[in-house]
Amino acid sequence: MRASIRCIAMLSLFFMPIAAFARSTQSKQAAGTTKPMEKKPFGATPDGKASDLYILTNKNGMEVSITNYGGIVTSIKVPDRNGKLGDVALGYDTLDGYVGDKVYIGATVGRYCNRIGHAEFSIDGAKYTLAKNNGDNTLHGGIKGFNKMLWEARDVSKEGEPALELKYTSRDMEEGFPGNLAATVVFTLTNKNELKIEYTATTDKKTVVNLTNHSYFNLAGPGSGDVLKTVIRIEADKFTPVDSGLIPTGDLKKVQGTPFDFRKPTEIGARIEQDDEQLNLGKGYDHNFVLIKNKPNGLTLAARAEEPTTGRVLEVWTTEPGIQLYTGNFLDGSIHGKGGIAYTKRGAFCLETQHFPDSPNHSNFPSTLLSPGQRYHTTTVYKFSAK
Ligand code: BGC
Predict the structure, then answer these.
(1) Residue 121 CB less than 6 A away from ligand 1
(2) Does position 265 have pLDDT exceeding 50, yes or no?
(3) Closest protein CA for atom 11 of ligand 1
(4) Interatomic CA distance for residues 153 and 340, integer angstroms
(5) Which of 41, 121, 128, 381 fits a 20 to 30 Å CA distance from 161?
(6) Distance CA 350, CA 305 (A)
(7) Is the distance from the beta carbon of residue 358 to the nearest atom of ligand 1 less than 6 Å?
(8) Does 229 have pLDDT greater than 60?
């Protein structure tokens, strides 16, 4: 009898620390630290490689899904003013949708996002010719840009915040761009409901780089109508007017007195139908804004969007000098996205942080040149809240 009591006492001494450890782990999870990043197969790419979907969840329950095919953000689920979680990003249900996509939904865009005029540029007198995939110009990296590549993924979560690192090396002369470019994108979902995207790149020959994310937002949810009532503010007092091919003319035009003045919160739709030369050229907003930077290369507020029915707010912070506002002017209902929803004209907006379009051909624009030994490094934060 005595022996068995001693035995129980010894056993409990042995198990106590284990139980305490288990309790502390449980309480950490219950206190709302993040779920581990979930990884799910997302199907085979056209060349037979397996892609995955990574689901990042923060302690507030905000959830962002990203695939290593194209570095594409496939969904962003954020609460509205009543705490109801809803997806605010356009996308497709399956990998095939993204493989066939031609409008860069959710994608990591590179090596050079936006347009390069006449599909050519020069570095040190050497001329480089790119594919023309947008009239006479190159758009979003060419025929097979970074959005159609399979990236190598790694879970780099830390301090209770899930983070996904994607790496892709673009080879010398891929799509006509010189230099082997090693690119890394880290997506972190913070506990402040921010999707933070950090881009880095290095090269072994002089090249040009401009990386962005091409998420289409509808803060009331894709398929809930157009975004014309979404109120936006853009921290820009100038924009880069374009020609008929949407290539910047090189001017930096004041927004004052034009429909491009978003320095005060204004509905996207308030002036979009005005008979304005630039709006006519873009079929709406499809323009790069020159951000007011009190800290050059610092992370500053670039834009804010507020959706009145749900109260959802998106703030865009960036180290970049520019932001493209694209109001889904070319969406025409022919694309059917998640749940079969038709993506119609102005059913979403994009706020693409970037260097200015066609910078390699405009010496007055901030340079997009990257040389061996230099490190390209930019950060953009999409921060969500509700009012
Ligand atoms: C461009 C638009 C283009 C869209 C989809 C935007 O970044 O500015 O002109 O239609 O991407 O490709």
Answers:
(1) no
(2) yes
(3) 103
(4) 29
(5) 41
(6) 11
(7) no
(8) yes
